[in-house]
């Protein structure tokens, strides 16, 4: 099946990053969000990223112009997916929200369309069960920032067909990504490992083992991680990390119990880079 049109559902950090990357890769992309403010911010972000890429010589001005022409924005879900060949849902990591969206996608998207969820932990089988086409449903876990990170985890649900996996692999490759195929289990590969490392770093901070900067420095220089675990948690968003930890704790048990300092920071509104303060403080 030839994929030409992609709909991205959710205009937050991940959704706008996926839309940007897909449009720059030559796909016609419609980005949908229920919030006009989110759509406006996404449009501004994508335009700024494209202009910055031109300025740094990463892309040519004609590539930027084509990408901008390839993008459309709407708050209407049915309108966003009515002609889509491939749909990527990228909303909050809340199972009830994802299943409700997939129920609507099953009604509104063309019958041939592949329905992918961008989730780092949640069950594509459970999400797919809300549609009448579970064989065309798959998890497609992108990483932040989408346009820089090379990996996509492709996660099979119980009924995901081989054809769906192969089409998803081709779409990922067209977007410049390497992919790995995962058989569904909570947290897949990367999130299970990453959440454990990050949670232990938070516990060490709480215990006074070392400072934020020194914990991150130790893992970057001692274990060759490109980014420290606390810096990464700030980038992901501490509220997002807490939701992931709570889900894994429920599914996999005690070793994924969220660190108390993570819970405290989220309650205080210290959500990381997006709010200007998390384990680090950020300025514009």
From TrEMBL:
Domain 3-hydroxyacyl-CoA dehydrogenase NAD binding residues, every copy: 6-184
Top-rank lineage group of the source organism: Bacteria
Database matches in Gene3D superfamilies: N-(1-d-carboxylethyl)-l-norvaline Dehydrogenase, domain 2 (1.10.1040.10), NAD(P)-binding Rossmann-like Domain (3.40.50.720)
Keywords annotated in UniProt: Oxidoreductase
Cited InterPro entries: 3-OHacyl-CoA_DH (IPR022694), 3-OHacyl-CoA_DH_NAD-bd (IPR006176), 3HC_DH_C (IPR006108), 6-PGluconate_DH-like_C_sf (IPR008927), 6PGD_dom2 (IPR013328), NAD(P)-bd_dom_sf (IPR036291)
Pathway: Lipid metabolism; butanoate metabolism
Residues covered by the 3-hydroxyacyl-CoA dehydrogenase C-terminal domain: 187-282
NCBIfam families: PRK09260.1
Family: Belongs to the 3-hydroxyacyl-CoA dehydrogenase family.
Protein name per Swiss-Prot or TrEMBL: 3-hydroxyacyl-CoA dehydrogenase
């Amino acid at each position: 099946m030839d994929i030409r049109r992609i709909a991205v559902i959710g205009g937050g950090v991940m959704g706008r990053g996926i839309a940007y990357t897909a449009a720059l890769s030559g796909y016609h992309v419609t980005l949908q969000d229920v919030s006009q403010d989110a759509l406006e911010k996404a449009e501004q972000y994508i335009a700024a990223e494209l202009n910055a890429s031109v300025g740094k010589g990463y892309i040519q001005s004609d590539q930027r112009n084509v990408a901008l022409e390839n993008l459309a924005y709407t708050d209407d879900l049915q309108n966003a997916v009515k002609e889509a060949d491939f749909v990527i849902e990228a909303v909050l990591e809340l199972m009830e929200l994802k299943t409700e969206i997939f129920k609507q996608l099953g009604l509104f998207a063309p019958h041939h369309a592949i329905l992918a969820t961008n989730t780092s932990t949640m069950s594509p089988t459970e999400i797919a069960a809300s549609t009448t086409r579970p064989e065309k449903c798959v998890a497609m876990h992108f990483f932040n920032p989408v346009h820089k990170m090379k990996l996509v985890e492709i996660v099979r649900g119980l009924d995901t067909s081989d054809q769906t996996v192969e089409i998803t692999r081709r779409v990922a490759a067209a977007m410049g990504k390497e992919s790995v195929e995962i058989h569904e289990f909570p947290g897949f590969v990367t999130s299970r490992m990453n959440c454990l490392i990050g949670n232990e770093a938070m516990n060490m901070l709480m215990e006074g083992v070392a400072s934020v900067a020194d914990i991150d420095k130790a893992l970057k220089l001692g274990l060759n991680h490109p980014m420290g675990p606390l810096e990464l948690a700030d980038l992901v968003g501490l509220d997002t990390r807490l939701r992931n930890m709570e889900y894994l704790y429920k599914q996999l048990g005690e070793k994924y119990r969220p660190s108390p300092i993570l819970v405290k920071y989220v309650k205080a509104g210290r959500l990381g880079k997006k709010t200007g303060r998390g384990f680090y403080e950020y300025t514009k």
